[in-house]
Amino acid sequence: MDANKGKGDQGMQSPGGQMDRPDSYHNMESLLPKAVKRRVHALKRLQVQCANIEAKFYEEVHELERKYATLYQPLFDKRRDIVTGTVEPTDEECEWHSDREEEEELAEEMKKKAALEDEKKEEATPEEDPKGIPEFWLTIFKSVDMLSDLLQEHDEPILKHLKDIQVKFSEPGQPMSFTLEFHFEPNGFFNNAVLTKVYKMKSEPDATDPFSFEGPEIIDCEGCQIDWHKGKDVTVKTIKKKQKHKGRGTVRTVTKQVPNDSFFNFFNPIKVSPDGEMDEDSEFTLATDFEIGHFFRERIVPRAVLYFTGEALEDDESFEEEELEEGDEEEQDEEGDDEDDEGDYDPKA
Question: Residues annotated as region Disordered (predicted)?
Fold first, then answer.
């Protein structure tokens, strides 16, 4: 369930604060008669009360998400078991029909006819039956632009060991948050069985700007320590530098470790500054991190198989195209209005 549907992407608000409002709004209010302005102030007080009620609404939505997560989990556990090959689904569980399959069946018949002659000439080799669904999560990472941008070639052998991704919601009475859990099978890269990323959320109007409230927003995140095997840490790389002694003129070679691009930097995020002050690059990096966490929670984990097959990607692209078309129409309308204005211009006036 997406608690933010219909309210914009609250889970991806920038960490630096709220959007600036045009000064014209404040100027408009200053032009009102005193008696009218007084009534507008009364409406604003009502609006703040509405925002407080809305915050409570989202708190209850969070509780509903937590409740239904326990109903989804057995299905997600079954998905994990099929992906890893722990369980082989029954014929009945594998029954599925789609429009595409009809086209695929026709193509398959043609392939069979073409292969008939080859089968007569040479003995057919038994078809290899891989365990589970190989590279299930890695395929998703490589297919989704938001994740593939983080993915490096040296990350891929590690992500082949990723068994499952789960979302855990904070318990009742605890501050609102959700945790992404990345479950790995034993591997030669690190000792952790689970890597975690906690996203802390807030669902209350800002006291200094209550009208900016649009639902829960991620306000901070916390990664985990990865217990890398010696020489396997892909988040750093070793470089060699030559140093020349000023007095003797002798040269020596020194090695040092420097940060390296890797998906696994995801588990060592930038921390939100206590005073809220951050440079532009850090603010952008953190906002992107929040967006990725939100995407894992709302899209990737609930609909993993559709991202694996590419069907969810087609849906996302269709949605983006529809938004783009609407935007183009608005621009054309504005251009049309400008042309009308030009038509009314009288050079003799």
Answer: 1-31, 89-130, 312-349
